[in-house]
Task: structure prediction
Amino acid sequence: MHLHSRDEKMNQTEERKREHVQIALDEDVSMHHNYWDDVHLMHNALPELNKEDIDLSTVLFGKKLGAPLIIAGMTGGYAEGKKINENLAAAAEKLQVGLGVGSQRAALENPKLKETYSIIKEYDVPLKIANIGASQIVLWEKEELLEHAKTIVEMIDADVIAICLNFLQEAVQPEGEAHAKGCLDAITMLCKEFKKPVLVKESGAGISFNAAQSLYHAGVAGIDVGGAGGTSFAAVEFYRAQMKNEEANIRLGKTFWDWGIPTPTSILEVGKANDWKLPIIATGGVRSGLDAAKALVLGANAAGLARCLLKSAMKDSRATLFSCDLVVRELQTAMFLVGAENIDALSSVGVTYDEFKK
Ligand SMILES: Cc1cc2nc3c(=O)[nH]c(=O)nc-3n(C[C@H](O)[C@H](O)[C@H](O)COP(=O)(O)O)c2cc1C
Result:
């Protein structure tokens, strides 16, 4: 590649990262319906436990967490992303919850951007998750993929590497790379050859029973269902296309705004395929500790939160900790009201969701 075209590509990636965060802050990029509102937990009028005795701790990928929560990967790869990741890392350290970073492709293209991700190494976060897009890994040969995987894991001292399935976004994005052919082979190879656990993560369109079965057979260590109901990447790309006057992409973003498998449905789908009882993370539209409790009752092992933390993470570490701590308190309150003294006990709580009932 010519030097100037490589520089151009680097600048475009940085610019895109910045635009994604800015649009997610300035515009309403949520789907039109949040499916957590359709899930109802059975109240227990006689919980027979004290709220302060509830144990929220859990173990995920062999790491002990203070609560079954993950701050889902959002950013890095442009200057201001460093502060966001740092604020999130400080909160994750304090509450001992998991933390992911956004796609680390930008730092592979431009090593000067490494610190926008590696800042999280300075915090004692119990579970750190590296991130790279699936549409990226299909372009690499085996050795190149293993080398890049090693680089991004070392960059943040990650415990797990997440491969982000982002084909909806790639399909509607003006500069999208919608090539999915070879994706499963690349994931299978990585699961077999790479020394860290591989988590596969959707980013808002959810994972079906069939997709989960393929991923489990590929050897993944866990699945983040990344379902519909929260941030819509079609919506984000709609606004980007508007900024660039790209008529066709404006239309695509609008048409696919609400595309995807609702997060609660996706938990049930992935759960049915999960013969190995591997961890399921539920990201997508989780706004509160109550939504997180619903996800856990439906069968997830942890809940992931992204956009609802972005505003405070842009502000400062105090505001970020306050937002995250509220989620923990809400989860504890929900557990009290359903009479669950620990995370395992949530699996026997009554719940209704559409035609699903237990
Ligand atoms: C600004 C922004 C940037 C994101 N970037 C990434 C990314 O680089 N990699 C990834 O796997 N997910 C990315 N996500 C998706 C989130 O991890 C999450 O799956 C999604 O936003 C749904 O969660 P939410 O409804 O709580 O926002 C991003 C989300 C936001 C809001």
User: Anything to note?
Assistant: The first strand starts at residue 39 and ends at 41. The pocket of flavin mononucleotide is lined by residues 20-21, 24, 72-75, 102-103, 131, 164, 201, 203-204, 226, 230-231, 283-286, 305-308, 310 (CB under 6 Å). The mean pLDDT is 95.
